[in-house]
Structures are given as C-alpha cells and as structure tokens.
Design goal:
HflD-like_sf, 0% strand, mainly alpha, globular
C-alpha cells in the first residue's frame, strides 16, 4: 500500500463508520470468492485486509483501513448490491453474512477472544519483522483462524476450483481473508452495527454509502 496515501478523516456519522467496517467484511467475502475461483486477488484490497488484521493497536479508526475509503472500494461496491443498487453475487453475500454470524459467536466466547488476541499480538510482531503480507504472516493468520473460528460447528464452506483451493498457500490465504472479515465484523459491532439494522435501516446505509462515494 502506498505510504503517501493521505489520511482522510473518517466521518463522524455512526452509520458511515458502520458502513466502512461492514465494507471490510464484504471485501473479505469478495476476495475469498475471487481466490477460490481464480487463484488471483486484487492487491490493494488484499493488503488493506491483512494490514488491518495484523495491526492490533491502530492509531485511529481510519488508520485501520489505510486512511482512505477507496482501500475498501471492493467492499463498498458489494454493499451497493446489498442495498439493491447493483447486481448481487449470492456467494459473496452468503460468505459475508456467515462471517457476521461467526463474529457474533466469537464475541461471546471470552476464552477464544483472549486466545485470538494473544495470537494476533504475536503475529503483529511477525509482520513487523517480515512485512504484513509475507507468506509467514499469512500462514500464521490462517493457522489462528483454523485453531479458533474453524472450531465452531458452523463453518464457511468455500466454493471454487478444487485444484486451486488445494494449491500451495491457498488454504492459508483464504483463511487469512476470513480472519480479516471477522476483524472488520468486530469493528462493525463496536461501531453499533447490528444484523437487524441491515434489514430495517437500509435507507441509512444508502445515505452512508453516498457520503463515501
């Protein structure tokens, strides 16, 4: 990610902050789908997710996603589909809502939250040494997901090209993406995001997306 990207101050509106956090969830869902089908991934979108996940103590809300809403453009575009403005990819939406469900399970499991926090602190040290998107860091994120979130009875079944999904580092990259989705899901909840609001407050989400476009 370009270190000279200017910091755009995050909006004060709770709905806009919720939209940005939710965009991170659906950006992760979109990249999981892309990885599973093509083996490739949008670099800017990927780096934004991974850096947000390994930075356990961001300086500000906007620092989480690299200081510019366009770093979450992939996720914001997916939200446009969620509110009915664009064609929705049902697989991506399913992954996104599944991530929110898993986030809620994690949020109420204090022991798992503590364990995951310790693992992410260790991984942040790795990232400082190797760089955020180094394969050692990605592998550690994937392992952390496997040891925590993957132990829930409810799991995300990823659809795609079986040969790609079994290729080197692909399981780790997919799980790292899913971990990023959980990270943004927790952020969304911290900002006041709730599932029922997605049903009953779509106009507020539309207005928030307009303010971020």
């Amino acid at each position: 990610m370009n270190p000279t990207t200017p910091i755009h101050r995050a909006p004060d509106s709770p709905a806009a902050r919720q939209a940005l956090a939710l965009a991170g969830v659906f950006q992760a869902a979109s990249l999981v789908d892309e990885l599973a089908r093509t083996g490739q991934v949008d670099t800017r979108a990927w780096e934004t997710l991974i850096e947000a996940t390994v930075d356990t103590n961001p300086a500000s809300f906007e620092a989480i996603y690299g200081g510019h809403p366009n770093n979450l453009r992939r996720g914001l575009d997916t939200l446009e589909a969620l509110v009915g403005r664009k064609q929705a990819n049902p697989v991506v939406l399913r992954y996104g809502f599944s991530l929110l469900m898993l986030m809620n399970k994690l949020r109420t499991n204090n022991a798992m939250m503590d364990s995951l926090g310790q693992q992410l602190t260790r991984i942040q040290g790795q990232a400082e040494h190797f760089g955020s998107t180094h394969e050692n860091v990605v592998a550690s994120l994937g392992e952390a997901y496997q040891e925590t979130i993957s132990t829930f009875k409810t799991r995300i079944v990823v659809q795609g090209d079986p040969s790609l999904l079994q290729s080197r580092m692909m399981p780790e990259r997919v799980r790292a993406c899913l971990m990023a989705g959980i990270r943004f899901g927790l952020l969304w909840h911290q900002q006041g995001g709730r599932r029922w609001k997605l049903v009953f407050q779509r106009k507020a989400l539309r207005r928030a997306l307009d303010s971020l476009s």
